[in-house]
Amino acid sequence: MKSKLAALALLALPIACTTLPEPADNSEASARTTEVMVLGTYHMDNPGADLVNMDADDVLAPARQAELEALVRRLAAFQPTAIMVEAESKRPDLIDTGYLNFTPDQLGSDRNEITQIAYRLAHELRIERVYGVDTREGEIDFFPFEKVQSFEAAKGIDVTGPMIAQVQAEAAEFSEAQKTETISHLLARQNDPAHIKAMHGAFYYGLLELADATSQPGAQLNYGWYARNALTFSKIAATTEPGDRVIVLYGSGHAYWLRHFTENTPGFSLVEPADYLED
Protein backbone atom coordinates (compact mmCIF):
# COMPACT_ATOMS: atom_id res chain seq x y z
CA MET A 1 0.00 0.00 0.00
CA LYS A 2 1.46 3.31 -1.07
CA SER A 3 -1.12 5.48 0.69
CA LYS A 4 -0.28 8.45 2.88
CA LEU A 5 -0.91 8.57 6.60
CA ALA A 6 -2.41 12.02 6.98
CA ALA A 7 -4.42 11.09 10.06
CA LEU A 8 -1.22 10.58 12.09
CA ALA A 9 -0.77 14.27 12.88
CA LEU A 10 -4.00 15.10 14.72
CA LEU A 11 -3.81 17.12 17.90
CA ALA A 12 -6.05 17.96 20.77
CA LEU A 13 -6.03 21.61 21.90
CA PRO A 14 -8.17 24.25 20.14
CA ILE A 15 -7.13 27.87 20.82
CA ALA A 16 -9.10 30.92 19.75
CA CYS A 17 -7.75 33.24 17.06
CA THR A 18 -8.83 36.86 16.88
CA THR A 19 -5.99 39.00 15.51
CA LEU A 20 -3.55 38.73 12.67
CA PRO A 21 0.12 38.09 13.44
CA GLU A 22 2.77 40.61 12.59
CA PRO A 23 4.11 40.45 9.00
CA ALA A 24 7.08 38.20 8.33
CA ASP A 25 10.54 39.45 9.28
CA ASN A 26 12.20 41.04 6.25
CA SER A 27 15.52 41.81 7.95
CA GLU A 28 18.91 41.18 6.37
CA ALA A 29 19.33 38.02 8.47
CA SER A 30 16.02 36.70 7.22
CA ALA A 31 17.00 37.42 3.62
CA ARG A 32 19.98 35.05 3.90
CA THR A 33 17.75 32.03 4.54
CA THR A 34 14.75 30.41 2.96
CA GLU A 35 11.88 30.49 5.44
CA VAL A 36 9.56 27.50 5.21
CA MET A 37 6.17 27.07 6.82
CA VAL A 38 5.12 23.41 6.70
CA LEU A 39 1.32 23.50 6.92
CA GLY A 40 0.03 19.98 7.46
CA THR A 41 -3.62 19.54 6.53
CA TYR A 42 -6.40 17.00 6.41
CA HIS A 43 -7.81 15.93 3.06
CA MET A 44 -10.91 18.06 2.63
CA ASP A 45 -12.32 16.16 -0.36
CA ASN A 46 -12.38 12.75 1.36
CA PRO A 47 -10.33 10.81 -1.24
CA GLY A 48 -10.25 7.71 0.98
CA ALA A 49 -6.62 6.99 0.07
CA ASP A 50 -5.07 6.85 3.54
CA LEU A 51 -4.48 3.95 5.89
CA VAL A 52 -6.95 5.63 8.26
CA ASN A 53 -9.43 8.05 6.72
CA MET A 54 -11.23 10.88 8.43
CA ASP A 55 -14.64 12.14 7.32
CA ALA A 56 -14.21 15.81 6.45
CA ASP A 57 -17.32 17.93 6.48
CA ASP A 58 -18.37 20.03 3.50
CA VAL A 59 -15.88 22.85 3.02
CA LEU A 60 -18.13 24.31 0.30
CA ALA A 61 -20.70 25.25 2.96
CA PRO A 62 -20.93 29.05 3.40
CA ALA A 63 -19.59 28.99 6.96
CA ARG A 64 -16.56 26.94 5.96
CA GLN A 65 -15.90 29.18 2.96
CA ALA A 66 -15.85 32.17 5.30
CA GLU A 67 -13.39 30.34 7.53
CA LEU A 68 -11.16 29.56 4.57
CA GLU A 69 -11.18 33.21 3.56
CA ALA A 70 -10.17 34.13 7.11
CA LEU A 71 -7.44 31.49 7.06
CA VAL A 72 -6.02 32.88 3.83
CA ARG A 73 -5.96 36.39 5.29
CA ARG A 74 -3.93 35.08 8.20
CA LEU A 75 -1.52 33.16 5.98
CA ALA A 76 -1.10 36.23 3.80
CA ALA A 77 0.57 37.97 6.76
CA PHE A 78 3.50 35.58 6.25
CA GLN A 79 4.00 37.28 2.87
CA PRO A 80 4.84 34.06 0.99
CA THR A 81 6.80 34.27 -2.24
CA ALA A 82 6.15 30.65 -3.27
CA ILE A 83 3.71 27.86 -2.43
CA MET A 84 4.46 24.13 -2.63
CA VAL A 85 1.64 21.58 -2.89
CA GLU A 86 1.19 17.82 -2.69
CA ALA A 87 0.90 17.34 -6.43
CA GLU A 88 3.36 15.92 -8.93
CA SER A 89 4.48 18.24 -11.70
CA LYS A 90 6.11 16.82 -14.83
CA ARG A 91 7.28 20.25 -15.98
CA PRO A 92 11.02 21.00 -15.89
CA ASP A 93 10.35 24.02 -13.67
CA LEU A 94 7.98 22.02 -11.40
CA ILE A 95 5.24 24.65 -11.75
CA ASP A 96 1.92 23.07 -10.75
CA THR A 97 -0.27 22.71 -13.82
CA GLY A 98 -3.38 22.63 -11.66
CA TYR A 99 -2.79 26.20 -10.64
CA LEU A 100 -2.07 27.26 -14.21
CA ASN A 101 -5.62 26.16 -15.02
CA PHE A 102 -7.18 27.57 -11.84
CA THR A 103 -10.12 29.97 -11.90
CA PRO A 104 -11.87 31.40 -8.80
CA ASP A 105 -15.04 29.55 -9.84
CA GLN A 106 -13.38 26.34 -8.68
CA LEU A 107 -13.60 27.52 -5.08
CA GLY A 108 -17.32 26.84 -5.28
CA SER A 109 -17.01 23.29 -6.60
CA ASP A 110 -13.62 21.73 -5.77
CA ARG A 111 -13.28 20.56 -2.15
CA ASN A 112 -9.60 19.62 -2.39
CA GLU A 113 -7.43 21.46 0.15
CA ILE A 114 -4.94 22.44 -2.56
CA THR A 115 -7.65 24.42 -4.33
CA GLN A 116 -9.29 25.75 -1.20
CA ILE A 117 -6.13 26.92 0.56
CA ALA A 118 -3.10 27.00 -1.76
CA TYR A 119 -4.78 28.19 -4.95
CA ARG A 120 -7.02 30.60 -3.06
CA LEU A 121 -4.00 32.14 -1.34
CA ALA A 122 -1.87 32.29 -4.49
CA HIS A 123 -4.70 33.94 -6.44
CA GLU A 124 -5.34 36.44 -3.66
CA LEU A 125 -1.66 37.45 -3.46
CA ARG A 126 -0.99 37.05 -7.20
CA ILE A 127 1.72 34.48 -6.57
CA GLU A 128 2.76 32.73 -9.78
CA ARG A 129 5.24 30.35 -8.15
CA VAL A 130 3.00 27.44 -7.14
CA TYR A 131 5.01 24.23 -7.43
CA GLY A 132 3.97 20.59 -7.50
CA VAL A 133 6.74 18.94 -5.48
CA ASP A 134 5.36 15.48 -4.75
CA THR A 135 6.83 12.18 -5.99
CA ARG A 136 4.35 9.31 -6.18
CA GLU A 137 6.62 6.51 -7.41
CA GLY A 138 10.35 5.94 -7.08
CA GLU A 139 13.09 3.35 -7.05
CA ILE A 140 11.68 1.87 -3.84
CA ASP A 141 8.19 1.40 -2.41
CA PHE A 142 7.41 4.52 -0.39
CA PHE A 143 4.87 2.85 1.92
CA PRO A 144 5.19 -0.96 1.85
CA PHE A 145 2.57 -1.63 4.51
CA GLU A 146 1.63 -4.97 2.95
CA LYS A 147 5.10 -6.28 3.87
CA VAL A 148 4.47 -5.28 7.48
CA GLN A 149 1.14 -7.13 7.44
CA SER A 150 2.69 -10.23 5.87
CA PHE A 151 5.41 -10.32 8.52
CA GLU A 152 2.85 -10.05 11.32
CA ALA A 153 0.76 -12.83 9.81
CA ALA A 154 3.78 -15.11 9.45
CA LYS A 155 4.84 -14.51 13.05
CA GLY A 156 1.32 -14.65 14.48
CA ILE A 157 1.65 -11.22 16.09
CA ASP A 158 -0.31 -7.97 15.97
CA VAL A 159 1.80 -4.88 16.49
CA THR A 160 -0.01 -2.58 14.08
CA GLY A 161 -3.55 -3.27 15.31
CA PRO A 162 -3.27 -1.15 18.48
CA MET A 163 -1.40 1.53 16.53
CA ILE A 164 -4.14 1.80 13.94
CA ALA A 165 -6.79 1.79 16.66
CA GLN A 166 -5.09 4.80 18.24
CA VAL A 167 -5.00 6.64 14.91
CA GLN A 168 -8.68 5.82 14.39
CA ALA A 169 -9.48 7.26 17.82
CA GLU A 170 -7.58 10.44 16.92
CA ALA A 171 -9.48 10.63 13.63
CA ALA A 172 -12.82 10.22 15.42
CA GLU A 173 -11.92 12.98 17.87
CA PHE A 174 -10.88 15.22 15.00
CA SER A 175 -14.14 14.55 13.16
CA GLU A 176 -16.12 15.39 16.28
CA ALA A 177 -14.16 18.63 16.68
CA GLN A 178 -15.38 19.77 13.26
CA LYS A 179 -18.80 20.39 14.81
CA THR A 180 -17.52 23.29 16.90
CA GLU A 181 -14.13 24.40 15.59
CA THR A 182 -13.03 26.56 12.68
CA ILE A 183 -10.70 25.31 9.98
CA SER A 184 -7.88 27.38 11.50
CA HIS A 185 -8.43 25.60 14.82
CA LEU A 186 -8.54 22.21 13.12
CA LEU A 187 -5.24 22.92 11.37
CA ALA A 188 -3.76 24.07 14.67
CA ARG A 189 -4.55 20.61 16.00
CA GLN A 190 -2.62 18.98 13.19
CA ASN A 191 0.42 21.23 13.39
CA ASP A 192 1.29 21.12 17.08
CA PRO A 193 5.01 20.15 17.09
CA ALA A 194 4.79 17.91 20.16
CA HIS A 195 1.86 15.98 18.78
CA ILE A 196 3.47 15.56 15.36
CA LYS A 197 6.57 14.11 17.02
CA ALA A 198 4.61 11.83 19.36
CA MET A 199 2.37 10.40 16.64
CA HIS A 200 5.25 9.83 14.24
CA GLY A 201 7.28 8.04 16.87
CA ALA A 202 4.41 5.90 18.09
CA PHE A 203 3.63 4.59 14.61
CA TYR A 204 6.68 4.70 12.38
CA TYR A 205 9.37 4.01 14.97
CA GLY A 206 7.07 1.55 16.68
CA LEU A 207 7.29 -0.56 13.53
CA LEU A 208 11.04 -1.04 13.84
CA GLU A 209 10.53 -3.98 16.19
CA LEU A 210 9.01 -5.92 13.29
CA ALA A 211 12.23 -7.62 12.22
CA ASP A 212 14.19 -10.82 12.32
CA ALA A 213 17.51 -11.96 10.87
CA THR A 214 16.19 -12.09 7.30
CA SER A 215 13.34 -9.57 7.10
CA GLN A 216 12.90 -6.01 8.40
CA PRO A 217 9.61 -4.69 6.98
CA GLY A 218 9.25 -1.98 9.62
CA ALA A 219 12.59 -0.53 8.63
CA GLN A 220 11.62 -0.75 4.95
CA LEU A 221 8.47 1.26 5.59
CA ASN A 222 10.43 3.84 7.56
CA TYR A 223 13.05 4.43 4.92
CA GLY A 224 10.44 4.39 2.17
CA TRP A 225 8.47 7.15 3.87
CA TYR A 226 11.69 9.04 4.56
CA ALA A 227 12.64 8.74 0.89
CA ARG A 228 9.39 10.19 -0.41
CA ASN A 229 9.68 13.19 1.87
CA ALA A 230 13.38 13.62 1.12
CA LEU A 231 12.56 13.78 -2.59
CA THR A 232 9.86 16.35 -1.86
CA PHE A 233 12.24 18.54 0.10
CA SER A 234 14.88 18.25 -2.61
CA LYS A 235 12.36 19.73 -5.04
CA ILE A 236 11.58 22.50 -2.56
CA ALA A 237 15.28 23.28 -2.31
CA ALA A 238 15.65 23.23 -6.09
CA THR A 239 12.91 25.80 -6.66
CA THR A 240 13.72 28.32 -3.92
CA GLU A 241 16.35 30.95 -3.25
CA PRO A 242 17.67 32.65 -0.10
CA GLY A 243 15.11 35.20 1.00
CA ASP A 244 12.12 33.20 -0.19
CA ARG A 245 9.23 32.66 2.18
CA VAL A 246 7.56 29.37 1.34
CA ILE A 247 4.33 27.68 2.42
CA VAL A 248 4.37 23.91 1.97
CA LEU A 249 0.79 22.61 2.01
CA TYR A 250 0.89 18.83 2.48
CA GLY A 251 -1.02 16.04 4.12
CA SER A 252 -0.21 16.18 7.82
CA GLY A 253 1.40 12.73 7.80
CA HIS A 254 4.31 14.31 5.91
CA ALA A 255 4.84 17.09 8.44
CA TYR A 256 7.39 15.30 10.64
CA TRP A 257 9.97 14.76 7.92
CA LEU A 258 9.35 18.00 6.04
CA ARG A 259 9.86 19.91 9.29
CA HIS A 260 12.98 17.84 9.99
CA PHE A 261 14.55 18.66 6.63
CA THR A 262 13.70 22.34 6.96
CA GLU A 263 15.26 22.57 10.41
CA ASN A 264 18.41 20.64 9.52
CA THR A 265 19.23 21.77 5.98
CA PRO A 266 21.70 24.68 5.80
CA GLY A 267 20.11 27.83 4.44
CA PHE A 268 16.57 26.96 5.57
CA SER A 269 14.63 27.97 8.67
CA LEU A 270 11.32 26.65 9.95
CA VAL A 271 8.37 28.96 10.57
CA GLU A 272 5.70 27.60 12.90
CA PRO A 273 2.24 27.73 11.30
CA ALA A 274 0.63 28.13 14.73
CA ASP A 275 1.73 31.77 14.72
CA TYR A 276 -0.58 32.28 11.72
CA LEU A 277 -3.42 30.02 12.85
CA GLU A 278 -4.03 31.22 16.40
CA ASP A 279 -3.17 34.03 18.77
Written account of the structure:
The chain has helices at 28-31, 62-76, 97-100, 113-125, 145-155, 160-177, 183-190, 193-203, 217-238, 255-264; strands at 34-41, 82-85, 130-132, 245-251, 268-270. Helices cover 42% and strands 9% of the residues. Strands 3-2-4-1-5 form a 5-stranded parallel beta sheet, with helices on both faces. The chain starts with 27 loop residues before the first helix and ends in a 9-residue tail after the last strand. The chain has 10 helices and 5 strands, in the order αβαβααβαααααβαβ. Mean pLDDT is 88; it is low at 1-20. The longest helix is centred in the C-terminal third of the chain and has 22 residues, at 217-238. The protein has 279 residues and is an alpha/beta fold.
